[in-house]
Amino acid sequence: MSLIDARQLDFGHGGQRVLHNVSMTLDKGEIVTIVGPNGSGKSTLLRLLIGALTPQKGKVTRKPGLRIGYVPQKLHIDPTLPITVARFLNLPKPVPAAAAADALRAAGVVGLDHQQMSQLSGGQFQRVLLARAILAKPDVLMLDEATQGLDQPGSAAFYRQIAAVRQDLGCAVLMVSHELHVVMSASDRVICLNGHICCEGTPEVVSAAPAYRELFGTGTGGALALYRHEHDHGHDHHHEAAE
Q1: Which domain holds residue 195?
Q2: Which terminal CB of the chain, N or C, has fewer other CB atoms within 10 Å?
């Protein structure tokens, strides 16, 4: 059984249709990225899959007991509010110190426990959000443009961390992103969305698809200019900077 199975979803608001006849699945262990222009319904689809929104047509089936970890696009914390990383990870309910330390280590930010959230860099802040999302040992890790505001090296490093988390937890990853050059290389499967699914498949297949090129052009060199996506015989995923 798929972790999430969405069938023929329609959704709109204010008399405007946002999504039409969208079907997709998410299976154990895979990294799937949803790409599309602004207003294409990417975040709406994520909310439908999580269950925060109800489709007007169609159905979303989640595996019973499915645990979802969510990393938002951004989270505003009042800079005058004194809250440490350790305290933030203990909201809304306390977690064992060892579990919090393990989550920070998995997210690549060891030793930040006593830092104030307001003093973190953008990259550190997003990794703390990632740590909080993986505290519950999720079956699915969902990220909604989680690297917005990070520079290109910061984004690439964050996505490498996501690949490491997937390897460590064995969870599936579903990402919404606009950063084609980095994300395409980090994905097993890409879904190109523009109110409906224009094309989907491996990064190589999607980047060559006419519908994808019509939306995004070819200015990113097929969107694979920065990173190669390689599979070894064990089907592990390695992300190496292209020379």
Answers
A1: 1-65+178-243
A2: C
